[in-house]
């Protein structure tokens, strides 16, 4: 299935390039609230952001809400970007289900665009919980920390490194069930070690110590990820969650300035 989708997108991209040049990076909603997609999904909300556009829809067959995520247009403007989206989405789907992982049900090609259909989580993200003061209760924080560890233990047992752990990628239900999401820059470990990530197409912004192939968020990435993104393991995810924990318990990051971890002075 994945191979057929990649070939289809490559073929369409080649034809488009031959006639009209690279696909323009236009970011406009494909659907509006009330639209019906494939006679199966009713669009209820449309949200845009730096990571791409997200549609909250109601699955008319399953009677549950789902999040439909469209990659950023600049990623889809090049064939390799499309291939990466499909490959990583396939890895997310194959990961299976876990209570502390936002499930990616499948990826569908709609109008030559790959859309990820993901479990909808209704309670906001950890960043919102911290800002609203919901993380002032230490028992809540400990519960969230344990849930995160369960989710990442499952992920790492599948040979997958997330590489972009941050509060915005930690979702919560209204009942405080934690779910890790956005496995969009995952790295698959092989028998010989971490797979070499593709350069560029990074959703994070590089700081002064960030390597050319860096993909992630500098304020949460481990020093080794910032210095050599080609050679990291699950410890990098653990470091990133440590920053999240500090923010949860202390209300701030552990830095004495705005530097990224590779150059920061840490508070004690």
UniProtKB/TrEMBL annotation:
Question: What does the record list as coiled-coil region(s)?
Answer: none
Any idea which GO molecular function terms this record carries? ATP binding; protein serine/threonine kinase activity
Organism of this sequence: hydrothermal vent metagenome
Q: What SMART domains has UniProt attached to this entry?
A: S_TKc
**In its UniProt entry, what is this protein called?**
Protein kinase domain-containing protein
Q: Quote the InterPro entries the UniProt record gives.
A: Kinase-like_dom_sf (IPR011009), Prot_kinase_dom (IPR000719), Ser/Thr_kinase_AS (IPR008271), Ser/Thr_Kinases-Pseudokinases (IPR051681)
Xref: Pfam families: Pkinase
CDD domains associated with the record: STKc_PknB_like (cd14014)
Residue span(s) of domain Protein kinase: 40-268
């Amino acid at each position: 299935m994945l191979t057929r989708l990649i070939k289809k997108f490559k073929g369409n991209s080649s034809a488009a390039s031959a006639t009209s040049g690279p696909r323009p990076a236009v970011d406009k909603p494909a659907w509006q609230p009330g639209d019906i997609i494939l006679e199966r999904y009713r669009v209820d909300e449309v949200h845009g952001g730096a990571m791409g556009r997200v549609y909250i829809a109601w699955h008319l067959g399953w009677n549950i809400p789902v999040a439909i995520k469209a990659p950023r247009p600049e990623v889809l403007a090049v064939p390799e970007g499309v291939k990466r989206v499909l490959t990583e989405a396939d890895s997310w789907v194959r990961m299976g289900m876990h209570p502390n992982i936002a499930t990616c049900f499948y990826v569908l090609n709609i109008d030559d665009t790959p859309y990820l259909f993901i479990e909808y989580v209704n309670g906001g993200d950890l960043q919102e919980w911290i800002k609203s003061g919901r993380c002032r209760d230490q028992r809540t924080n400990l519960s969230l920390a344990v849930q995160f560890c369960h989710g990442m233990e499952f992920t790492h047992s599948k040979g997958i490194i997330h590489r972009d752990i941050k509060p915005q990628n930690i979702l919560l239900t209204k009942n405080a069930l934690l779910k890790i999401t956005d496995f969009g820059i995952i790295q698959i470990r092989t028998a010989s070690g971490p797979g070499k990530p593709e350069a560029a197409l990074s959703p994070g912004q590089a700081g002064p110590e960030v390597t050319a192939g860096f993909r992630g968020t500098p304020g949460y990435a481990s020093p080794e990820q910032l210095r050599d993104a080609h050679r990291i393991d699950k410890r990098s995810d653990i470091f990133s969650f440590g920053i999240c924990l500090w923010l949860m318990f202390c209300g701030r990051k552990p830095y004495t300035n705005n530097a990224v971890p590779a150059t920061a002075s840490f508070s004690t």
